[in-house]
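Archive maintenance. Older records in this collection stored only the sequence; we are now back-filling the structure field for every entry so that each record is complete. The fields below show one back-filled record exactly as it appears after the update. Entries are processed alphabetically, and Alkanesulfonate monooxygenase is next in the queue.

ARCHIVE ENTRY
Title: Alkanesulfonate monooxygenase
Organism field: Paenibacillus eucommiae
Length field: 375
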Amino acid sequence: MELFWFIPTYGDGRYIGTNIGARATTPAYFRQMAMAADDLGYSGVLLPTGRSCEDAWVTASTLIPLTRKLKFLVAVRPGLMSPTLAARMAAAFDRSSEGRLLVNVVAGGDREELEADGLFLDHDSRYELTDEFMTIWRSVLQQESVSFEGKHLRVREATNFYEAKQKPYPPVFFGGSSPAAMNVAAKHTDVYLTWGEPLEQVAEKLQEMRSRAEKEGRSVRFGIRLHIIVRETTEQAWAAAHELIRHLDDDTIAKATKIYARMDSHGQRRMTELHQGDRSKLEISPNLWAGIGLVRGGAGTALVGDPDTVAMRMKEYEALGIDTFILSGYPHLEEAYRVAELLFPKLPLQAAPQERRDYQGEIIAYQHKPELKST
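Back-filled structure field:
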């Protein structure tokens, strides 16, 4: 497994759906998050995208010199940026980071937000544009001279003067549950991402993705985006889950549900259907809890339990073919440590955490004496 963490560039806190227990998410906080993830041994971090987030490219670029091995999963936004500009940005970032860029293709799912950014296309048309965007982006980053005329995009003799460090280009991640999205992913992605749905739903989606990729003469890897609530005991974990939504009122849930309803994202619809805005139906399969999705768009489910149980559930997803887990928890800085300390030892990680050693607690006076050399 590869384990990633999450940098919450839109806000963080101890409770969701409320300002109670909220904290300022500042550049200094993002630096703390990145340095902690790097030191703890996470493979990388995801930076979210959207108008409520700090810009992912600018933020990630400030974190390069503060980290050693940490990879950065950063979004390109077809329709909001040109494919040739996006290629130059990717090449520059990849060179600057010594090959630590991963690219997250995000077509968007909220028409109101997209129209505010100047993109007026329906769902399937956005994926047509994304297909054209990725065709140009991938070719230009392979140092080809590209002339392309499509329905949405056109370039003439486009070239990239500075190569990316990773060949043929930085790895591409792509999520999307609709047929249109999966068709584009089959052609262009290296890692297909799903949100945390029950095992049978994920198995069905992955098999569909494999079939579509095979028709394109390709194979893809798989990843999953999940929240984690892990504690020393199962009882403590479920208490923490319930505490997370303690200040969440029905009015806030209703407002969030209304926003989800206006979206044309198939993935968001699947997330909403898991809980239907009902607090009494939040454990949607063993240890998979949909409480976060009551008021958080996108990934809305968490694995809840003691370390052995959560590790077992993750291994069940791994058995379906998932090797990349993009995790998060509230508040994100403290939970990055908790997950590493409790869960890492239970998992078959692809790479051992950096500088892993025999940790000891606070030294008790007179019980730990350094060896003194006589001179």
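Update note: The first strand starts at residue 2 and ends at 6. The chain has twelve helices and 15 strands.
Entry marked complete.
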